[in-house]
Amino acid sequence: MEMLHYDFMQRAFCAGGIIALVASVLGVHLMLRRQALMADMLSHVSLAGVAAGAYLGWNPSYAGFSAAVAGAIAVEYIRRSYRAYSEMSIAIIMIGGLSSAVVLMGLNKGMNKSFSSYLFGSVVAVNETELMLMLGAAAVGASFFILLRRPLYQMAFDEETAQASGIPVRLISMLFSMVTGMIVAAAMPIVGVLLVSALIVLPAALAVRLARSFAAALMIAMLVGVAGVFSGLTASYELGTPPGGTIALFLLALLSLGIVLKKVSVIAGKLGNRQNRTIINNHQTGQLAKQDVFPRIKSGRLDASATHTNGGTENESYV
Q: Which of 92-101, 195-204, 308-317 has the lowest mean pLDDT?
């Protein structure tokens, strides 16, 4: 825990934990809305904002934040123009953001070295201004997802039905895009532009795979996100590697481990069911076949002569 004696590591862990929680929730919503690439697109737009801020002498963090929100609004308007091809809006804005960033970086030769912290993340990049920006974005995002959780859930599966039931779909979609832009821009100093989508998509991908309910998916995503960020920051400090790539690798390892464990549990469940069917067949062919293995209900009561295989009468609901 020597690393926690340094102020920059304390800020990195605090900022990383906060962003991991809200980014994981955002990722689940993006996956349900089939917009997983939106985070990647907005990170490129945010990079163009950082480049423009550095070129014009503005604060790069504020410029990147503003550009991400503006890009989110633009993608929502373009998405309405291409309703049948919603992924088209993401491709258009991503091309615009990346090309603008490349041109602006080429115009300002002296900024290329400092850009590595924005591209790949840096634990020392989280200053007081960045931390306050993250806290503000996390507070707005958490309030948005808590207050509008029911409309967002309905819109994720069928926007037309949600609109018919009186939900202001256009307004909420616009607000959702703006919140997405804010969270993406806030997460950029920790994991970098190129890997910010890993912090949003990978925990959600594992949660959707494992969870059986929406609430469980949100909880699993937040736990995985925080575990990946804390493990990645610790390894980055010990090994001297870029935090963005290290965090992404840890999240990828957690996703792979979760998928493997899920496969193993499914196979074990199938083997268990096969053994149960074998036991039932043996009972039916033997002396016990004269009795009912699973009791039947007669006149509203369980048959007294039946053999309970799972306990006593408390299993009536099981029949």
A: 308-317
